[in-house]
Structures are given as C-alpha cells and as structure tokens.
Structures
1.
Amino acid sequence: MTSANDTLVVAVAIVCAAISFARTAVFRRRLGRNPWSVHPNLWLAIGFLFGPIGAGLAFLACATTRVSPAFGGPGAGGAGPIYTVGAPSVSGPPAGWYPDPSGRHEYRFFTGHDWTADVVDHGTHSTDPLPSPPGG
C-alpha cells in the first residue's frame, strides 16, 4: 500500500512541476520577463518540491508580475517600439510597446499579431480593452 501512495505522490509532483514550468515559460516567452524574476527552470523545481502549492505560486507570480515598457531605451524618440520582445516578425512589426492606436493612452502593447489591453500612461501600467471597430 505504501508503494502505491509513494507513486501517487511522485506523479502529482511531476504534474505540478510540468504545470509550473509550462506556465512560467509561456509568460517569459510572451512578455520577455520571468515571473517574480524567477527562471522557469526554478519554477519547475518549486512545482516538484511543493506540488499544488508550487503550481499555485507559479500562477500567482504570472498574475502579479508587472510588465511595463523600458522608457528611455532605444526607440524612445518615437520611431519604432520602446521595448521589444523576441525576434522581429517577418510579416509585420515586432512585439513591443507602441503609441496607442486608439489615442486614449500613451502606449499599448502589440504582440506582433494584435493589440492587447495592456496600456501605459505616464509610466503607470494598466489595462483597457481596445474599442470595437466601427460598423463591427
């Protein structure tokens, strides 16, 4: 009976480790930052050692890590993005912070494919969904 319980505990630990790693790796790949400045490999270990609590911490870290543009970096003069993530897209501009196309905020994050609800005004990050296009 103990062997079955041990096997179940190890299986749960492996699943929690995989969930922790996958969630934080996707966060890092999309936004260019580690949640709570902890690398996904370390989140894998936390998920394995602490099981569901570690996986919960990984989700909490992704939900609470602030991602805002690096003001004053290259491109701050208004040409191109302020902060880019990943390799440039061949079909369009790379992911990054650009002037808000709606004009309601200073900057809005572009994923390389579409605009997100993440906006920045005077260095403060918030969210505001884009309005629906006219006639849509």
2.
Amino acid sequence: MEKYSCYEEISPNRFQRKNEKGQYIIMALLLWAIGGWLFGKASISGYVSAGFALIAGFLFIARMFSQVVIDLNDQTILAKAGLFSAPQKVDIATIESFAISNRIYVLLLISSGFAIVHKANKQQRILIGQYLMTKNKTEQLLLETEKILGGR
C-alpha cells in the first residue's frame, strides 16, 4: 500500500484528501482578533473594518469543510469546495490537466490546486485543495492526485 501525505485510503480504491482544518481555524482566529482590535478603536472605519474581518473569518471557517474523494472503482472524483458549496462529481476521463493558482491578498498567500475538466463543451475548474502561505503543499497534492489516478 502506497503512503501519501495529502490523501488517506478510506476503502479499497477510494482516497480522501486529508483534513487541513488547522490552517483555517488559525486564520479565522487571527482575523477575529484583528477585528476585535479594530472594533476597540471606536470609530466608523474601525467598525467597518472589524465587520470585514468578521466576515472573512467566517469564510475561512466555511472553507474548512471542503473535501475531495477519489473513487477509482467508479472512476469519479467528488469535490466539495466548502460548507455552502454543492458537491461536484467529475468523471476522471474528463480531466484534461491540473493547475495551480497563487493569489496574494494583502499579506496572505492562498495557493489553490484545480483539476481542469472538459464538460458541456467548455472548461471548468474543480477545486482539489487550498493551502495558506505555501505553494509546495499544493504542488504535492496535485502530484499525489496524478499518482493515484495512474500517472496521468
């Protein structure tokens, strides 16, 4: 049995991406602490900024509930990007490639790994995983995904 750092085998030929909840909890707590500090400034701009920090913290908590399951028996990938997003079921045969998107928001790097899928005569990006402040983990995730899928 192959050992993976980003996936765990939940049953024969079924792999689930390992949970990375800690990074989202830390970011949400950090944002809420900044929001509390801004709220303590007792000014209109402080209240508005605190509101944005509160909402951003909740968005990180919602993202914490994302999951990816690769089912080699059914030849599908089930991806759910967060708490409020609908699960997407993708046939492995429709995956064209994988891509990484790195975005910087103020001082925060968010590295996202996507599967590029050809569906209904157009390309779609299916979120496979996100990591904060590093792109190396995203690269490792996509390499392991390709390895599980049979070296695509």
